[in-house]
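QUALITY CONTROL LOG
STEP: pairwise intake check
CHECKER ROLE: data steward
CRITERIA: each record must contain a sequence immediately followed by its structure tokens, with no blank fields

ENTRY 1 OF 2
RESULT FIELD BELOW
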Amino acid sequence: MFLRPIPRSLSRVASWLIVAAWLAQMGLLLDRSYLQASSLNLAADLARYGSTAQWKGVYYRGEKIGFMVGQTIPTAAGYELQEDGQLQMALLGATTAARIHTLARVDKAFALRSFVFSLDPGSGPVKVEGTLDGRRLDLTVETPSGKRTESRDLAEPPALSLNLSRHLAAEGLATGQHREMAVFDPATLRNAPMSLDVQARELVRAAGRPVPAFKVRMQFGGLVSTSWITDVGEVVREESPMGLIVVKETRDRATALAVPGDVQTDMLEAAAVVPEGPKIDDPAAVERLRVRLEGISVGEADLQGAGQTASGDVIEVRDSRTLPPGPADPGAASYLAPEPFLESDAPEVRAEAAKAVQGVEGPRARAERLVRYVNALLEKKPTVSLPSAREVLRTKVGDCNEHTALYVAMARSLGIPARIAVGLVHLHGAFYYHAWPEVYLEDAARGRGAWVPVDPTLNQFPSDATHIRLARGGLERQAAILPMIGRTRMRILDLQVTPGSTPVLVGRAASDMKPIDIPIPHRDAGGHGCWSRPPR
């Protein structure tokens, strides 16, 4: 079977800062009882770490939000790299927690042989296991809902350098060095370039004492981080432009987390983009939005289509209800296949989709019914997860990622091409990072069709014109927009508002559009959204 790229968050080489930032985007809402239980459950996992383990505290804008611990164990075939961690954050006004476990087995040259990644948001761990045999990668994704196994033949044997700092130290660190190297990137299942610049040697305070270390700037996958590495290759401090800091500490200090509720800085609200220019009072009434975005770096193809155009740093979004269909997309059928976390072929997903559209005919009417159905089905809670459609269907809880994953899988199971879009959406005076589906609606008789953005989280069909798409794809694409967090600036250049419009009806001229009259469950679209603060 064809294997889609797995999330970039599985890669330790990009540093734990990336994982922490990715978790912040996913969101999480857990109560204090889980935080207390999690500490007890984690104790057994931490018992394996000996005197050579490195303990580090994780901070966001000066506040302690978690810790990590890692160690390298020699084996007969090479090394086993172990890492555990816990995050405790304020997201959307709630204290949150998540546990992460990573294990990688490498040979004596540190070439990857197998790995295990586990993320537990409190509802049960999502575990991803990978085994390499030459150029063949066997992957198993396991959730409380079951297992899924897929394989792929890689173009070249992957090289993984989890002990990158030790490798650099072994070759000798010196101010002014510049290095380019290939590192295995799980987001693309290919080697990706990493650039490193060794800067001045500085005194850094770590574990209560000053430590001399080289300042090293690293760029990988668009993310830039700064590390301080000692002569023997120990990383004593890491920083990212998003305000995340990882610093070496004693075990007691690293594991001393804040009391739940005491963390004040809300990571998701801090990441919101507040635009300059005209004020948007009612996103649903926006017919055309034209903005200038600074600090973004994404593929041009991702910015075009489905009611959106881009020229340089200027993006324009039009209300999809005002757009006529265009020529048929010959590639739309590729968005019908199942993926590791979009299990459109799972029996329970197919059965739920059939139930959702019972008595409804036609792809457009079914696509709209699915929006209403998924919106009504899921409880709105920010959730840290690798959003699997099967698991979302089991828990019936989630944020925009869970709504989108379930919708896309259900649509594909019904023969409606669907894909994931990620970007920004306007809510309560700011733009928040968000995910939503795009569905392909076709008028085969006329050879016409259109990709239409929809939003089951906000109960919108189609979605309003404040949805600014920055990328298309799953979690690996969401990781791709991480470098934009904290760097994106927006100015609204033009805002056109109309008193009302009519839903798009693919295959008919704009003047001939009218709503389809079908009985559907309905929930007002005025509730809180994916990244907005829930009502108290």
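ENTRY 2 OF 2
RESULT FIELD BELOW
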Amino acid sequence: MKSVFIREIGIHPWDQPHGCNDENYITITLLNQNYEGAWKTWCEFSSPLTKKFNTLVHWHTRLTPYLNKTQEYVSKKEFSKKAKAGDIFRKNELTGIYSKIVQLNTDPFCIDPMRMTDYRTSITIMQKNSVNLENLWQQLCNLTDISNTDDFKLILSEKSSISFRFYDTETYGAAQAICHSEHLPLLNKIITEMKIEEISQNDVYAYLHS
């Protein structure tokens, strides 16, 4: 089954029943009957973006503090084995919760899709300019999860950013791009070149069961 897309004004996270219709933002949802198909479509969609948005990072929070110092030590050691120069894994001293920011390969086809599906606790961010990871961590470290539209407004406080989240379920896969509406002409151009069908939220059930 070919992927389809939904284009909505505002911030409309796929996992939340109520978004917002703020005209300063746009949400593009790429939908397929399986995650593999949705991921492939996202790679095709995001690859042209990397010509202008040449930095790609992934932020993730633990949700809760570690139970003991041993868990904390082991996690920090495991992180240091895989981290690139500049990656951050640090504790918010007020909440006791660790979060991390890691740099991703700028070729979407080289990213492991299974690393990207913790949508409640992670976000992928693409930016036009080199990201100051320290500033970005400071900006996001107070988020305990990503659960409402205000969280996205915080994530997108830098207007040159596009955020992505990914959903892998038994019956479908989805990838969402949420960003400032000033980027819509570029996103529309890419979608037109991909020649994928547009549907509305009302068509989702029929598409998934076709």
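INTAKE CHECK: passed for both entries
DESCRIPTIVE NOTE, ENTRY 2: The longest helix spans residues 69-82.
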